[in-house]
Specification:
homodimer, 242 residues, alpha+beta, Apoptosis, Tumor Necrosis Factor Receptor Associated Protein 2, Chain A, 16 strands, 39% strand
Chain lengths: 242, 242
């Protein structure tokens, strides 16, 4: 009996180690909440040559990109909204999600409330942690970015963008929540549309901003857990009036 | 009838103008909440000569300060906890509140929930906005500081300290809340004791931190309203478990 117990323990240890070393994005459920482990990606946005080459090889099966706007521009086409790469792709808003999934391998999660667990917070800036979130019939892009706005002083910026128009975005409220060691930080706002560039949202500072010291206070073993909830704006307004 | 309506309007305008130009700290009640208007004070902590002179003249009636610790040190004495001045005063914890009120003219407010309205947010760093808050049988010191941790990049730091021991402080939770333009930012934490220096709390970044851009987003006409609530820790823990 003792032998079987030990064997079972060893198997559990192996599963645990396998899980710890599994480097891809992964999802599990803890205490009824959907937890999504998101690994960092070093931003290649400012390395266009390397990026363009990667895009060309990856973009098979997707309509040919509108290279440098040489073709006649269709006003209904939107550029690629991936915050990681300077991607030449253009397409209709309805196909942005499939482009982000297929070309940029950004995962999509279902659920009104999820936990975004960003790993390896110590990595140097610029680094992004990105996931798509499907909720209330729409898709949202959650971006956590480590960036040095002031040289030598990296900060973390977290925001949520609706993959839709600004008018559609006005109907929602998103909440990001950090909670650890008897400290709690909550940010609530209307999501911006992906048609507005994520870079400008971050440079405006209209998002959750964390200094390195605050990020460390909320981190556990190098990972930062951000609770995410999306509601329709009517609920938000009713709460504000209370 | 029209004449009386116009007269009444003119009187209201005059009251409004008088109120706008009244420069001292003032308190009023808006929508059932106690609003305390707090004017900034340029921090003189790093100008000891000027500060010492001001202290000497102001300190009449208060026991003579323990100059440079020449006398035998009583372990029950605590230094002055005023974040504004390098004050040589020392006294028992029980008389810190009266010292802060009498010598440093820091106002004290009663009430479980108050709104701290900091004016003139545009003033250059270092600047402090300070108020004492009496609640649940204890006194708390609320400090909002504009400081350049990184040269040329001022930030705002807000924290609440209990005028009591660290053990007493552990029994409370304070909440600071900013709410404007469909954005909301909440910070909840256990207050630190005034026996720990406010400067170290701010340098550790263990408080509500705002970049200038975020502070502007939450400001209205150069003033920042911070909602403050204090609860006992048991309530906080129960909420966290929900």
């Amino acid at each position: 009996m003792l032998f079987f117990t030990q064997c079972f323990g060893a198997v559990l240890d192996l599963i645990h180690l396998r899980f710890q070393h599994y480097k891809a994005k992964r999802v599990f459920s803890a205490a009824g909440q959907l937890v999504c482990v998101v690994n960092p990606t070093h931003s290649l946005k400012y390395a266009p040559t390397r990026c363009a080459a990667a895009q060309t090889s990856a973009e098979q099966g997707v309509p040919p990109p509108c290279h440098h706007h040489e073709a006649v521009h269709d006003p209904q086409l939107v550029p690629c909204t991936c915050p990681l790469y300077s991607c030449p792709w253009e397409g209709h808003l309805e196909v942005v999600v499939s482009h982000l999934r297929q070309t940029h391998c950004i995962n999509i999660l279902q659920g009104a409330e999820i936990v975004f667990l960003a790993t390896d917070m110590h990595l140097p800036a610029p680094t992004d942690w990105i996931i798509m979130h499907s909720c209330l019939g729409h898709q949202f892009l959650l971006v956590l970015r480590k960036q040095e706005k002031y040289e030598g002083h990296p900060q973390f910026f977290a925001t949520m963008m609706l993959i839709g128009t600004p008018t559609q975005a006005d109907n929602f409220t998103y909440r990001l929540e950090l909670n650890r060691n008897q400290r709690r930080l909550k940010w609530e706002a209307t999501p911006r549309s992906v048609l507005e560039c994520v870079d400008s949202v971050i440079s405006d500072g209209d998002c959750l901003v964390l200094n390195t010291s605050l990020a460390q206070l909320f981190s556990d073993n190098g990972s930062l857990a951000i609770g995410i909830a999306i509601t329709t704006s009517k609920v938000h307004n009713a709460e504000a009036e209370m």
